[in-house]
Structure formats: structure tokens, C-alpha cells
Write the C-alpha cells for this entry.
Amino acid sequence: MKDFNHLSLAFDIRTIFEREHEMLNDLSFPFFYQFPKDCCQSASIFLGVCLKQFFPDAEVKIVRGTTRGDDEYHHYWVEVDKRIYDLTLDQFEKWLEPKFSRVSRPIYSEKRHPLAKYYFYKKKENITDAFVDFITGYANLNEVLNAFNYCYIELRKLGWFSDFRNLKRDLY
């Protein structure tokens, strides 16, 4: 029987992203053509929205980290009840291993980000503010909603929705 918890949701979303990134790109979900590279914000926003919908009492934050000293590079991840989920961490393996360990795979429910010495917290936002920033700055609302709907259908195939009426849409 499936455990319906933060960890299993994150695993299932990563699985969908790996399998369906070309379709998500066709639906204009920003930067998904080369998943996991360069799509950390899109992936984090979707994970954050789903976490808040399924677990409305959870404290969900979208974190924007920037490189120390120059602010030139940034990376997004999710914190849920002070645990870190980074579905695109493995994009850094080729250029940060072996200096930073544990970047060859996504991380789920860790207390500390493996790149904490490289990226520092620049901004932490609740999911509502992060979603608004994402839509106003980087994405088209209708295209994002189409991609979200596609992912919701895939999540339903994995047992997450008995029907879509149970979505907590007003909580994010």
C-alpha cells in the first residue's frame, strides 16, 4: 500500500518529471526541455503547490539561493517543515563533484542542503508569493496551468487523486 507523505509525493513528482519532461516542455512549462538542468524554479513551484494541496498544514517555502559573493547564479528548492527537497540537484553533478558530495541525485527530506556552502538563502517565500513571482516574472499562467493539469493526471495514475474535487486550490 502506498504511503501518502511528503517523501513519496516528491519521489512520484520526480518520476513524472523524468518520464514526461519532453511533454511538459511541449506544454511550455518553463525550461523543461533539458530536465533536470535549468528548471529548478518550475520543478520547485510544482512540488510546493502539490505539497500544500495534499498537506495543507505543512509549512511549505520556496527557497531561492544565490552564489556567495557575486549573486550571478541562483538555484531553487523547497523546504517543507524545515526539511529540504531538491528535485533538480543532480544537474550540478558534472561541475560540482567531487568538491561537493551528494549532488549526484535529488534530495528528499534532508536537514541541510549539500550546496549550503555554495548557495546561500537569498529569499524564502510561501508558495502563494512564489507562484505569483513565477507567473509574473517567468511563465505564462495558462501554459503553467496546462502543465500542472497534465502532471495532476499523471499523479492520479500513481494513486494521488481519487478525484480532482479534493484539490485544496484555495490554500496556495
